[in-house]
Amino acid sequence: MSVAYQQISAFKSYSSWEKDSAFQFVRSNPANTHNRSARWTTPSAAIIPNFHLPMRSFEVKNRTSVDDIKSLRLITAIKTPYLPDGRFDLEAYDALVNMQIEDGAEGVIGNTGSNSTREAVHATEQGFAVGMHAALHINPYYGKTSLEGMVAHFQCVLPMGPTIIYNVPSRTGQDIPQPVIHSIAASTNFAGVKECVGHDRVKTYTETGITVWSGNDDECHDSRWDHGATGVISVTSNLVPGLMRELLSKGKNPSLNKKLLPLIKWLFCEPNPIGVNTALAQLGVIRPIFRLPYVPLPLAKRMEFVNIVNEIGREKFVGEKDVQVLEDDDFLLIGRY
């Protein structure tokens, strides 16, 4: 199976966007420009009820169903490989996707979320237009919004296709509380939540019929088998998709979980994707290239990874080359691209 790459044009002119926007800017009446008592129209009053964005992708009948998305056990948060000039290495990416498919990963879903609603909408339009099966949407980060704004943000992207909401407060600085999820769960395109808060939150959702994928590899086994999670959206499966598939699909297996925990701990000793990019480079399946501000793990950690691979078994990892310890000079760090 190959990944088809297309370049599409999905821009509107500003005037057209403004006319079609779900939020309309309320202009003052020229005759009352000095009327200080004029009231500002609140955003809630400007929302068009049941607004749907214009479809710019495959017809809805050709879409993957939300129920099919809800059934996925193992989804890989796949690492994007780079060329020396900083562009995406599409050939290596295609190979990575095929490795995932061959070894049991069930989904690679477009991460089209943004802290800008406009950017999230645009990226999601493009993704569905080229065949994306579902969208992953994070809540607005850094420039955080209110809970009402969070709901409005998700309501702008949900009409476009099957959608997973991604809650990771350690990266966004803001939790997506349960009332927000419950308020959007009625959407026919709502598939579920990638949840990183922990088992208690997972259990709260699964007990009310909401599909949940663990966002924490070190917790995914127990979330799946003890707390009702459907599966995991995993970083570790970039490296050992077959083992992660077994962990999530073939019954409770604490011994396998224990065997994988040193690898998982190693992967997250620094923020993702530092560990996985270092690992894939040492496995010889991507070029050893980092786009700053990410830099490879230090030499001692790179040596530790080789030991972990040998302990688990090289045949369990993606790629066919021998695992090696790369030197500092083997890595290319790109600041401008």
Automatic annotation (TrEMBL):
<keyword id="KW-0028">Amino-acid biosynthesis</keyword>
<keyword id="KW-0457">Lysine biosynthesis</keyword>
<keyword id="KW-0704">Schiff base</keyword>
<dbReference type="InterPro" id="IPR013785">
    <property type="entry name" value="Aldolase_TIM"/>
</dbReference>
<dbReference type="GO" id="GO:0009089">
    <property type="term" value="P:lysine biosynthetic process via diaminopimelate"/>
</dbReference>
<dbReference type="GO" id="GO:0008840">
    <property type="term" value="F:4-hydroxy-tetrahydrodipicolinate synthase activity"/>
</dbReference>
<dbReference type="InterPro" id="IPR020625">
    <property type="entry name" value="Schiff_base-form_aldolases_AS"/>
</dbReference>
<comment type="function">
    <text>Catalyzes the condensation of (S)-aspartate-beta-semialdehyde [(S)-ASA] and pyruvate to 4-hydroxy-tetrahydrodipicolinate (HTPA).</text>
</comment>
<dbReference type="GO" id="GO:0019877">
    <property type="term" value="P:diaminopimelate biosynthetic process"/>
</dbReference>
<keyword id="KW-0220">Diaminopimelate biosynthesis</keyword>
<dbReference type="Pfam" id="PF00701">
    <property type="entry name" value="DHDPS"/>
</dbReference>
<dbReference type="InterPro" id="IPR005263">
    <property type="entry name" value="DapA"/>
</dbReference>
<dbReference type="InterPro" id="IPR002220">
    <property type="entry name" value="DapA-like"/>
</dbReference>
<comment type="similarity">
    <text>Belongs to the DapA family.</text>
</comment>
<comment type="pathway">
    <text>Amino-acid biosynthesis; L-lysine biosynthesis via DAP pathway; (S)-tetrahydrodipicolinate from L-aspartate: step 3/4.</text>
</comment>
<keyword id="KW-0456">Lyase</keyword>
<protein>
    <recommendedName>
        <fullName>4-hydroxy-tetrahydrodipicolinate synthase</fullName>
        <ecNumber>4.3.3.7</ecNumber>
    </recommendedName>
</protein>
